[in-house]
Amino acid sequence: MGRVLMKGTEAIAEAAIQAGCKYFFGYPITPQNEIPEYMSAHLPEVGGVYVQAESEVASINMVLGGGATGYRVMTSSSSPGISLMSEGISYVAGCEIPAVIVNVMRAGPGLGGILPGQADYLQSTKGGGNGDYNLFVLARSTLQECVDLTQLAFDLAQKYRNPVMVAADGFMGQMMEAVEIKPSPSKDQPADPSWALGFMGERGGKRSHLHSLFLSPEPLEEHNRKLQKKYQAMKDAEQRCECYMMDDAEVLIAAYGTTARISRSAVNNLRAEGLKVGMIRPITLWPYPYEAFKKLPSTVKHILVSEMNAGQMVDDVKVATGCKYPVSFYGRMGGFAPSVGEIENECRRILGL
Amino acid sequence: MSEVKVYERPKSWMPNVSSHYCPGCGHGIAHRLVCEAIDELGIQNDTIGVAPVGCAAMIYDYMDTDYCEAPHGRAPAVATGLKTVRPDKIVYTYQGDGDLASIGMGEIIHAANRGQNITVIFINNAIYGMTGGQMAPTTLIGQRASTCPLGRDVKLNGYPIRVSELLAALPAPGYVTRVTVAQPKYIIKAKQAVKQAFQNQLDGKGFSLVEILSSCPTNWGMRPVEAFDWLVNTMMPYYPLGTFKDFD
Ligand SMILES: Cc1ncc(C[n+]2csc(CCOP(=O)(O)OP(=O)(O)O)c2C)c(N)n1
Ligand code: SF4
Ligand SMILES: [Mg+2]
Questions:
Q1: Is A148 helix (H, G, I), strand (E, B) or coil?
Q2: What is the rounded CA–CA span in Å between residue A149 and residue A77?
Q3: Does B162 touch chain A (CB under 8 A)?
Q4: pLDDT tens-digit profile of A139-172?
Q5: What CATH number belongs to A3-198+229-234?
């Protein structure tokens, strides 16, 4: 398959199939309905199965069971649906089950609206469910990146036996762009019989049981320590970030997803005017790219965070930079995205122009 | 005189492990019936159980088969996921009445309605055992529980749900039966039902559920013998034994 023009949600779905995902469990919610629709049409062609769950509560628990077999499974939803999945995501993490969850974010709170948003940043990166757990959260700013990160998500899930959330927003889901979707090299990676359910015979009669329940404090703390060690390994090895026009930047825009895409245009325009503006774009929202923030050039005087929410990433930027720089925020909510002009004006204002 | 072995622990019961259940609790008997069915059908290496949240949450400590945890009430969804990816395995849930008939009512109805080829062992003890005896959706009218100290009041709490009758009204589920572990004569029948429910899955027939009326002497505030008598005399009249649906 060469480059084809595709809608974001459909590109994600095809990328998942090309990553070897054969089982999808989902419940309808706008703006991600094309993912389950695509899966219901195309999974049978590759010998897979689409199951329409009765709710997001059920779909994440189907993912829990499907993922417990060690094979590649996935669900997708949008903000209110992800809220319903939070308990299940905590169990998936606690039981160390690989799974991919796509969140095509819309604006909240509550039912909010079906228009795009990034208002689930804190929910995705800081928890949502109960307990000390973490999941990978991947954010992309082009459709090709949607494709690549969706495929990476399956590799990370299996490598770390952990849930991975692919965070897109409604813009990313609904826009069309040319993408190239290749089968991922790990497409046919078999389940790992050392832990996956359904391989008791292969293990010579040794059973496996996946659980997060430990009634005594000693084993529960030990389980938590083991999880924390894994999360540390994830932080050490998997931070991803793009630094754009950063080398001599005085104002640095910190943005991800759609707002990063808009900010890139603002940076290009301001650079054409000779203004020293750059961008740092976290790709892994968790683990947060602390290492990249540690290496900011000495020219940086100010960091501007831009998001489609009320400023949920601001604290992470302050922590990542040890509060060394003034950090300000420009964002829109309710389904609006900051425009290129708005971000340019904000940068000019910061530069005293 | 040579020794004759008349009874031994099932092979699929974890060696050298005793259960934590209270004296007179029906869970232990129900576990044994499941183990015996697994042994007799020779499916120990191919069975994946899904644990509930309730007194039987640690069932995987006793059963020597693959096992997966489920959040409270979600076992039928977890089983759906397992069976979808591994249709070649025998997947079953083991759930209490709070788990299946209250918080998990949505999941059980839809798994049954899909005709999901899984086996459900449903332990109805008319109470929330694990959390200390609160009212369950199955608590009988007038039965006292810690959250209905004066007895279940229909005006406030509605009627106890008859799960088997409810599910049997759907077209898809194939085998829905109610049995009890109250007395040996009933246990023999319960054993046949449990085995049948696994055999159905092996035969690819579809959804099977065995409702087992069970005892919770601790939270009923009774001695074990009284509890089994109460089960027969008070629970069974409201929850009649019988097969409500069967594959032809
Ligand atoms: C989401 C959630 N809500 C509530 C609980 C608390 N809880 C644990 S067990 C239980 C009731 C179990 O009763 P039942 O299913 O009848 O099982 P039994 O102990 O009687 O066998 C409840 C409410 C929980 N663990 N998770
Ligand atoms: S509390 Fe009730 S259901 Fe739980 S183990 Fe004791 S008798 Fe059994
Ligand atoms: Mg109960």
A1: helix
A2: 17
A3: no
A4: 999 999 999 999 999 999 999 999 999 999 888 8
A5: 3.40.50.970
B66 and A200 Cβ atoms separated by less than 8 Å: yes
Which ipTM was obtained for this model? 0.97
Identify from A69, A97, A195, A208 which residue to disrupt to test chain B contact, counting B C-beta atoms within 10 A and taking the largest count.
A69
Residue of B64, B77, B106 with shortest CB distance to A207: B64
Q: What are phi and psi of A263, to 5 degrees?
A: -65, -35
**Which residue from A339, A139, A151 is spatially nearest to A242, judged by alpha carbons?**
A139
| Domain CATH for B123 | 3.40.50.970
Please determine whether the domains at A3-198+229-234 and A242-350 fall in the same fold group of CATH: yes
- Which structural domain range is residue B101 located in? 27-246
What's the pLDDT tens digit per position in A279-315?
A: 999 999 999 999 999 999 999 999 999 999 999 999 9
Q: Confirm if B22 and B130 have CB atoms less than 8 A apart.
A: no
Q: Is residue B242 part of a domain?
A: yes
| A274 contact partners, CB below 8 Å, separation of at least 6 | none
Average pLDDT on A1-25 reads 95
Report residue A32: phi and psi, to 5°: -130, 10
Within 8 A by CB and 6+ apart from B96, the residues are: B52, B54, B55, B56, B123, B124, B125, B128, B129, B130
d(CA A9, CA A33) in angstroms, rounded, equals 8
pLDDT at A327 over 90: yes
CA gap A329, A320 in Å, rounded: 16
Quick one: pLDDT at residue A1? Answer: 66
Distance B22 CA to ligand 2 centre (A): 5
- Preferred mutation among A209, A214, A220 to probe B, highest tally of B CBs within 10 A: A209
Task: Report yes or no on B19 lying in a domain.
Answer: no
pLDDT for residue A195: 98
Residues A118-131: what's their mean pLDDT? 95
Query: How far is the C-alpha of A306 from the C-alpha of A254, rounded, in Å?
Result: 6
Give mean pLDDT, residues A321-347.
97
pLDDT digits (tens, 9 = 90+) for A217-266: 999 999 999 999 999 999 999 999 999 999 999 999 999 999 999 999 99
Question: Which pLDDT tens digit goes with each residue over A52-102?
Answer: 999 999 999 999 999 999 999 999 999 999 999 999 999 999 999 999 999
Domain presence at residue B1: no
* Residue B109 Cα to ligand 1 middle (Å): 19
Angle between helices A56-67 and B75-85 (to 10 degrees): 50
Number of domains in chain B: 1
CATH 3.40.50.920 for domain A242-350, yes or no, is yes
